[in-house]
Amino acid sequence: MKFCETGSIAWYLQYFGLPLSLGMILYKLSNKVRFHKRKEALQGKVVVITGASSGIGEALAHVFFKYGCKLVLASRRISELERVKEDLMSKKVQTLSIEPIVLELDLGNLDQLEVFTGKVHEMCGHVDILINNGGISHRGSILHTKFEVYKQIMNVNYLGSVGLTLATLPKMVERKSGHIVFISSVQGLISLPERSSYGASKHAVQAFGDSLRAEMKQHNIKVSMISPGYVKTSISINALTGTGKPHGVMDVSTAAGFSAEYVAMKILETVVNEENELIICQFVAHFAIFVRRMFPSLYYYIVARRAAKTT
């Protein structure tokens, strides 16, 4: 008796399903092996993380420290950086741990960036991975947002990251090795009402990163663009309003977002796998990106309705 008739579903499963399943299993296993080998290669790598005093930056410090990286933690709040450092050192991972370096950095002070990079090179010799994570958000309508707020957010989110990258690149090019990571946002891909200055700064980061990736390929320097959706951090609390004062409120959507630890681990995987881009967001944001690209008129209508409800 035949096991199944030719052309039946069971026949296709027998002759195609099993080999495909085995192929997928082997592919996933090989990916895991490559991932673990590359993670081992992180040992001793010099990793600079801006905005490392809280949120995603602090979570990134923990995951990269776990795999034996030599961390340079940067932020305006030196006391909070020391807290993060103490927390890391209290969780030593056998002999892999290297004591992190703490350096003060105000990304909005553009004249400070080359001095900061000089200190890092003096203390570490070079930078293997630069994670441009530091930034500030915005809550407020265009009509009621002062121009000074636009300048401040663009200085921190865009020019700060660009300036630090430019200061770091020459040694990377000289060594023919390095990885630049930008923590952008879904709002660098789609624009929302009440977020104009933040969205504009992240759009600028996305464009700069794409150009940088193309130009640096010949120098063996990787560029990864990370676009998170809502992440449960203090970003909405610290966001600037139209007057330049802190928003001071935890948004409902932010409170319901991914954990910073989860996002940090996904970013580490992106770096280890040398991927160009990671979009890590909830379904609604993914759908909005799709609609914006495929049905722009519909997207414009939806966000205009949203804007009308907030006024």
Describe the structure using short key phrases.
single chain, 311 residues, alpha/beta, seven-stranded parallel beta sheet, 11 helices, 7 strands, 53% helix
Beta-strand content: 5-15%
- Alpha-carbon Rg, integer: 22 Å
Average pLDDT: 89
Strand order in the largest sheet: 3-2-1-4-5-6-7
Helix content: 40-55%
How would a textbook summarize the main sheet?
7 strands, parallel
Question: How many helices does DSSP assign?
Answer: 11
Number of strands: 7
Structural summary, described in words:
With 311 residues, the chain is an alpha/beta fold. It contains 11 helices and 7 strands. The protein has helices at 9-40, 55-66, 78-89, 113-124, 147-175, 196-216, 235-238, 252-255, 260-272, 283-294, 296-310; strands at residues 46-50, 70-75, 101-104, 129-132, 178-183, 221-228, 277-280. It has a 7-stranded parallel sheet with strand order 3-2-1-4-5-6-7, sandwiched between helices. The longest helix is centred in the first third of the chain and has 32 residues, at 9-40. It is globular.
List the helices and strands and how they pair.
Layout: H1 9-40, E1 46-50, H2 55-66, E2 70-75, H3 78-89, E3 101-104, H4 113-124, E4 129-132, H5 147-175, E5 178-183, H6 196-216, E6 221-228, H7 235-238, H8 252-255, H9 260-272, E7 277-280, H10 283-294, H11 296-310
Parallel strand pairs: 1-2, 1-4, 2-3, 4-5, 5-6, 6-7
Helix pairs in contact: 2-9, 4-5, 5-6, 10-11
